[in-house]
Amino acid sequence: MSRSPAKLLAPLAALALALTACSSSGGSSSGNGPLEIAAIAALSGGVSANPEYADGAQAAVAEINAHGGVNGRQLHLTTCDMHQNATDSATCVRKILADKKIVALAGGSDIFLDADKAQLEAAKMPVIGQWPVSSFDITDPLAFNVNGSTVVGFPGMAQDVAASGAKKVGLVTLDLPTSDGNRKSIMQILAAAGAQVTADVRLSATAADLSAPVQQAIAGNPDTIIWLSFTAQTPVAVNALRQAGFKGTVAVAGAAFEKQGMEAMGTGGPVTLSLVFPPAWDTSTAYGKQFNDDMKAYAPQGKLTELALSSWLGVQMFAQVAGTLPTVDRASVLDGLRKLAAVKTGGLTPAVSFATKSPLPYAAIYNPAYTVVHVANGAAGWDGKLYETGSHRVLQPAP
Question: How confident is the model at residue 161 (pLDDT cuts 50, 70, 90)?
């Protein structure tokens, strides 16, 4: 159901309840106490810090609480900042799992969950609507994602590049194990379309000076460059490519950029941005409008990015499941997710069912759709379509 929170006065109690530190204990998962959930993400520190993960989740919690909660029970969100390092990630997981009142992880993103797989499985902790980046996220039966992240979005971008008629493509990817699968998929798609990969550049995740990889990328005179790096590196790379004389299309990851950031990168030439949902700034869908309204009302300083939208949707999915349960604990939430045949995504995805096998070769990714934003002459545009990865056919959005 679409609501208009901007027309309502948000109770201060709802805002206070949405914000909490990792050490917070909160209420009970039974009776009339708050329903406890948590989100882990790199909210600060490093080249890939994204505080909007928390902003999106907090906005969803505040909106749900302002409208009576879930079956009359308020939501209580614990956020934990893992600073994009493995030690802090392990600390976050350990503290959250130790708090038995926390019944699910909803939203957020933690690249290091593979290291905590055994503990998460022992605790049978449901993980809902993460921005999936680890092997755990995309394959484990505890994970439930309607966001295909890089394993859907990046091949989709390659399909879009191929469909645009690109013949020579320079490829730049992060020199990380998590990039290996994406690199292989992109190369296969381009090869099948008859496009030549003129450069295969591996970029250090901490690189500040991009002059060398830029020269490597343009050496083969490509008509398109696919540059997949951390958010902080991406606009620097686009600018460096333009200064080096490259005038073709630059295709980049778009999940962490607001509309104005996308358009700023496109002032010097065409830019293509990979997404998996409709752009965060789009209000043509029920949930797209509600997300924008919620962020305006409850997190006005937060960034309108796909990462924030993903976290917001993770909390909405938890509320959908919890609303069907007489008793809410980890086991009942997990069982409810496995029986959820119609996941409500408000037009952000095609029809999604957690009750059937994933249509993808990734057991915990249930949505095969990707989207693409094209920036031309400094103006960002989306064609309003969800495309199926692999086939490029148009998919119909579901309620």
Answer: very high
